[in-house]
Amino acid sequence: MTTDTTDFLGWLKTQIPLLAHLGIDRLDWDGQSLQVPTPLAPNVNDKGTGFGGSQAAIATVAGWCLTTLCLKERGLDCDVVIADSHLKYLKPVTADFTTRVSLSDIADADTLAERVAERGKGKLELVVEVVCHDQVCMRLDGIYVAIER
């Protein structure tokens, strides 16, 4: 079962008010990967390119969403936090962009769910990329931790 992301995004914007200002109006989720199409205009800096803080926020939230959706679809209600992240800004974002994150293997989500069920918590390592004009402009390497409620 794949979650309806329209309702999920609506709920998320009530939990993280910043998201209402970033221009995100949909999440594309297929059960293994998530894409977040984003307009440049509300995320622009003084140079006319993508603001690094917006990219960092969207990338962080994209990984959080993937982790949360994977757990939700496995019947688990967890608090998810980012425990560690490293960002690399590789190229300027010059137009509307997409933030994407995928499980390297669907077994990663199953293992996470098993750890949470057994130990009450688990972690998931993810690579999140901000892509513009088919080029990776920013990369976040992150560790997300899920704690059963």
Automatic annotation (TrEMBL):
It comes from the Bacteria. InterPro entries: HotDog_dom_sf, YiiD_C. Residues 12-147 form the Thioesterase putative domain. This is YiiD C-terminal domain-containing protein. The lineage of its organism: Bacteria, Pseudomonadati, Pseudomonadota, Gammaproteobacteria, Oceanospirillales.
